[in-house]
Each structure stands twice: as C-alpha cells, then as structure tokens.
Amino acid sequence: MEGVSRKEPFRYVMNQPIDCWLEVPASNTGPGAGKLTEGVMLDLSRSGCKIRSSLNLRFTSGNTKLIIHFQLNEIKLQLEGSVRWGWMFGLGQFQYGIRLDLEEAEEELLLREIETWTLSQH
User: pTM (2 decimals)?
Assistant: First the structure.
C-alpha cells in the first residue's frame, strides 16, 4: 500500500457555495427525470459532495442517480453520483449527500481541479 491512506478523503468546504446543475438521468423514473435543476454545492471531496437544491427527489435510499454539472476553474465538469441521504432544508429546499461514482480518469481530473481551485482561493 502506497503512502498513508485515510478513511475519508479530505473534504473541501466552500466558503461561497458553488453554483451547479443537477440532472436526473432520463432513464430514472420520477420527478425531474431528464431535466436540469439549479443547485449549490456546499462541499466536495473525491468521494462525494453535499448539495442544496429545490429539486425534490422524494428521496428513497438506494438507487437514486444524479449527474452534477459544475465548474471550479476552466473546465466544465459533469460527474455522476448516487444520493446517499436527503432531507428538507427550509421551505422548498432540499439538501443531499452524493457519493460520486467516478472512473479513475475522472477522479484524477477532479483532484487536479480541486487543487487548482483551492490555490486560487487564497
């Protein structure tokens, strides 16, 4: 095993939430399928993120997939994930924890983007 591995990768909490769009894949049944809904990303790590949106997934644990569209730097990212938890956050707002399901190349790109973005925040 190379280096020291931590159970939970470092999570970057956004001082200013980042605008994002949530896409429910068209293959899903249920509200919002195939549409984009605006949201904000509150934190991000290579394993997942926390998002707030008006999108009501009527969350049921298990197999709710989302595609998250966002941009930290120059590149528009489009990452797929699974909703791990969700709850109502105030009136008409919902907060979700998303586990990202990334290929190795996507994970490397995300880590580079986070690194560049973090440096630009100082």
Answer: 0.84
